[in-house]
From TrEMBL:
Coiled coil: none annotated. Pfam families: bPH_2. The keyword Cell cycle does not apply. Residues 48-127, 404-461 form the YdbS-like PH domain. The chain crosses the membrane at residues 12-30, 36-55, 177-206, 226-251, 355-370, 376-393. Keywords: Membrane, Transmembrane, Transmembrane helix. This is Putative membrane protein. The keyword Disulfide bond does not apply.
Length: 499
């Protein structure tokens, strides 16, 4: 009765405030605002009295509505994930939001949401739904509703460092980790996002008057003073970037923890909005290690899971935020299966292709500047071309793919480098793609197709001949039926692709 109206009232705060300011506290405006608040409170009462849920033997049923009634049934065997989220308001009231993600059927999404259930009941629901889903998927006898089965929980209790309830803590955030937020390019741009939001609010509230005022101030202010103020504001903004980055990082990942219980990994984080995501280990098919140039200077990396049937992977699949590589590798070795083999370097032709793409456009601009005698364009294009040389080299060094007998790993990228590692059993196909320049250079893009995560991960500009042998070594049952031995006298002795 409280959470629903307050959440909806937040969307009306700005319109009501603008109406009161512009209308000069007109009785009609005040009456309309009061009526809106009363309607929201009445809606909260109706929602509280008309929403019911029930966990049956094989399905979860959610009923809601007074005039327009709705009944949603979610088969428990289709449940893919159960997330528990608590905003600051929810935590003050001791409640939480339970979101049930299910495999979409022919009629569309089957996701369910239960807002403002008791916090203890939210944890019980998560445990029961995931446990019964696992039991139904295994075809075993289902336990009574409201009870959690043994199975995976028993195996967790045998692990070193397990708590009395079988929970194993793989990671708990340390204070020093929050400083790594200053290495994230996304968090460093937080001040610009804040300024854009403030500008939008001011423009919405004041309309064209704010723009006219700013334009008048710029045109009437002394140019020297305007330049000094602009330089000072830019300097302050640059100095605030790492501060805002650390604060934003801390708000998002405050108290981050990664635990394992009942055969699932549970990641919890957040200061004002506390979010708990549960990922069944049987659905985790691999992992991703991501970093950028700033993070690589401090040997920092982030960890993300590759999961089947998971939406919003950018947020829900996070297993560890940005942190030191050594610690991330240690947690990865305890919680999942790491990649233990070397990565194969790609041919030198791949380096030339990256230099052409990174340097070529700016070299053309520099030539145009020389022809037109535009010195500024020559200088800018030359600097960007020099940076392109470094970027191309870094992108080439990031290329690689490998197989250690159990895991297949692919790495690429520079500004956003990603190393995706998947189980050999998760590979369901291979795709070779070649452009005309790649065919001339003997290169190809090899995509590892998996039924999880993004659906495929690409080894860019790999050797076409060696990539075929690589794929045949990983999944011979898939690739070898399409291979032929070279004829007598043909160059090379490895298998080659036909046509």
């Amino acid at each position: 009765m409280v959470v629903g109206p307050i959440n909806q009232l937040r969307n009306l705060v700005v319109p009501i405030a603008v109406g009161l300011v512009v209308g000069g506290f007109n009785p009609w405006v005040i009456g309309a605002s009061a009526a809106a608040v009363v309607a929201l409170l009445a809606g909260g009462l109706v929602t509280w009295r008309t929403v019911f849920y029930e966990v049956g033997e094989e399905r979860l049923e959610i009923r809601s509505g007074l005039v327009r009634r709705s009944r949603r049934t979610i088969p428990l065997e289709r449940v893919r994930g159960v997330d528990v989220t608590s905003t600051l308001l929810h935590r003050l009231l001791g409640v939480a939001v339970v979101r049930i993600e299910a495999a979409a059927g022919a009629g569309g999404s089957e996701d369910g949401k239960l807002d403002a259930v008791d916090a203890a009941e939210a944890e019980r629901l998560r445990r029961v739904l995931l446990d019964r889903r696992a039991v139904l998927a295994d075809g075993a006898a289902a336990p009574a509703p409201g009870t959690a089965g043994a199975g995976a929980g028993d195996s967790a209790r045998t692990k070193p460092g397990a708590a009395a309830d079988g929970t194993v803590t793989h990671f708990s955030m340390r204070p020093s980790w929050y400083l790594y937020g200053a290495l994230s390019l996304a968090y460093l741009l937080t001040p610009f996002a804040v300024l854009a939001t403030l500008f939008g609010v001011v423009q919405q509230a004041a309309g064209d008057q704010a723009a006219d005022y700013v334009l008048e101030w710029v045109t009437t202010t002394d140019r020297g003073m305007l330049t000094a103020l602009s330089a000072g504001a830019a300097g302050v903004l640059v100095l605030l970037m790492p501060v805002f980055a650390v604060v934003s990082y801390a708000f998002t990942h405050w108290g981050f923890s990664l635990r394992e219980r009942d055969g699932s990994l549970v990641a919890e984080r957040g200061l004002f909005t506390r979010r708990s995501v549960t990922l069944e280990k049987r659905r985790i098919r691999g992992h991703e290690l991501l970093d950028n140039p700033l993070e690589r200077t401090r040997r920092a990396v982030r960890l993300r899971a590759i999961v089947t049937g998971l939406g919003d992977t950018a947020n829900r699949a996070v297993l560890l935020p940005i942190g030191p590589r050594a610690t991330v590798d240690a947690v990865l070795a305890r919680a999942l299966t790491p990649f233990r083999g070397p990565l194969v370097r790609h041919p030198r032709a791949a380096l030339y292709r990256r230099w052409v793409r990174a340097v070529g456009p700016f070299a053309v601009l520099a030539g145009v500047g020389l022809t037109a005698q535009w010195t500024w364009l020559v200088v800018v294009a030359s600097v960007l071309a020099a940076l392109g040389v470094v970027l191309g080299l870094d992108r080439y060094r990031s290329l690689g793919h490998g197989y250690d007998g159990a895991m297949v790993s692919v790495r690429s990228g520079s500004l956003r480098r990603r190393q995706a590692t998947v189980e050999r059993s998760a590979v369901i196909g291979w795709t070779w793609t070649q452009t005309l320049p790649q065919r001339r250079a003997g290169l190809a893009d090899l995509q590892v197709t998996v039924g999880a995560g993004d659906g495929g991960y690409t080894a860019m500009d790999a050797s076409q001949r060696r990539s075929v042998a690589f794929a045949a070594g990983v999944t011979p049952e898939i690739v070898r039926p399409f291979l032929v031995r070279p004829r007598d006298g043909a160059q090379g002795s490895a298998d080659t692709a036909e046509g």
